[in-house]
Design a protein that fits this description.
Shape: globular
Number of domains: 1
Structural class: alpha/beta
Strand content: 15-25%
CATH superfamily: Class I glutamine amidotransferase (GATase) domain
CATH class: Alpha Beta
Helix content: 25-40%
Radius of gyration: 16 Å
Number of strands: 11
CATH architecture: 3-Layer(aba) Sandwich
Number of helices: 7
Largest sheet: 7 strands, mixed
Order of helices and strands: EHEEEEEHHEHEHEEEHH
Length: about 220
């Protein structure tokens, strides 16, 4: 199966690279696409991802995986005059077997109208954005790592994409392949610290209109 990850300037590194690692080990053909092929700047400084395909040359994907990113970038993609990204996601989703997001990527799927009538999750700090702006989307309670609703798979914050990728692998290829991928990547989380989530923000940190500098 071909799985496409459409990226954009300001995308979160782990939202892309963590699932890429899991999914490619499992046997997916993972492709990175962008509006313009070539280097795409990740959130922060000093790291880029190479998109081999542009949106015009990308094939139809069996699975589309939408990553999160900087609030500024999300606002540009959602409210800017250039709707190339959302148009690509909508076009792909119409024929994809599975439509997935991780972290704030759920906001992009929601902006594209692809989560209306579905129960979803996202990063805990961005749940308020879904509640305030997308009233036809149901937010799962309890900050789950990932949520399945029919052919929609949404993940929580950043590292949740690893668990979510294994969930997709199990759904598509079966439990044995998912277990083999877990062994290969030695994904047996044992963090040295424990913490609790902070109270969520009282308002959405993603601008509600086109921020300065957007196309």
């Amino acid at each position: 199966m071909i799985l496409g990850i459409p990226v954009y300037d300001g995308v979160d590194v782990l939202d892309v690279t963590g699932p890429f690692e899991m999914l490619s080990w499992a046997g997916f053909e993972v492709q990175i696409a962008a509006a313009v092929a070539g280097p795409v700047r990740c959130r922060g400084e000093g790291m880029s991802i190479i998109a081999k395909y542009d949106f015009k040359s990308a094939p139809q994907y069996d699975v589309i995986w939408v990553p999160g990113g900087e609030p500024y970038a999300l606002a540009c993609l959602t409210y800017g005059m250039d709707q190339t990204y959302l148009d690509f996601v909508k076009r792909q989703a119409a024929k994809s077997a599975y439509v997935c997001s991780v972290c704030e990527g759920a906001l992009l799927l929601a902006a594209a109208g692809l989560l209306d009538g579905y129960t979803v999750t996202t990063h805990w700090a961005f749940e308020i954005c879904l509640r305030e702006r997308y009233r036809n989307v149901t937010l799962a309670q309890g900050h789950p790592r990932y949520v399945w609703d029919r052919n929609r798979l949404t993940g929580g914050g950043i590292s949740s994409g690893l668990d979510e990728a294994l969930a997709l692998i199990e759904r598509v290829f079966g439990t044995a392949v998912a277990q083999d991928t877990q062994r290969t990547t030695q994904y047996y989380p044992d963090p040295p610290v424990t913490s609790e989530m902070l109270p969520p923000p009282k308002s959405c940190v993603v601008p509600s209109g086109k921020p300065p500098g957007c196309a």
